[in-house]
Amino acid sequence: MTDFGRIVTVLSMVLGLGVTRLLLGLVTVFRIRRESPLDWVSLAWAAILFTIQLQYWWAITLLPSVKPTFSFPDFIFLVLLTLMLFLSAALMLPSRSEDEKNGLRAYFEHDGRYALLSLTGFLLLAFLVNIFFFKSSPLSAWALTDVPMIVLPVATFFAKSRKVYAALTIAYLPLVAWDVYIS
């Protein structure tokens, strides 16, 4: 197995756990839908996170064409990046029906919104990967999309008003769609 083969195996295992965790959260939300009201904001962020997870999984397959060899610090950095996505997935949706008894909105406001901080961490680290691994200019067109994608989740986390964090969520959706389109 090549260096990249070992790296992509570890990253895919952790990423696969994150995708699984997010999907199990959706199953939990589905199972308790009769007792607890759904909330579109947390479901929108879950969809955004799922999209970002798939994009990242696709992007790691491009790494050997850009960087043929990897050092141990490179590996640690990539693992940290992947762990940030796992943490986001683990926090985004409830994993037990007991966590959801007050509704998905209450879960998101009390616990789920912390996923947005780790998502911001992932996006910030990914910004650095684009600069150092892919040798992209931080002044290029992708940065115009990445900067608001980094700022809006943390702004949503700190927003106290439902109207404000809902508006920030709506503003984020076209950014993700554009990011998928250009990548």
From TrEMBL:
Keywords, alphabetical: Membrane, Transmembrane, Transmembrane helix
Keyword Transmembrane helix: yes
Protein's organism: Phyllobacterium pellucidum
Superkingdom of the source species: Bacteria
Bilayer-crossing regions: 6-30, 42-63, 75-93, 114-133, 139-159, 164-182
The protein's name in its UniProt record: Uncharacterized protein
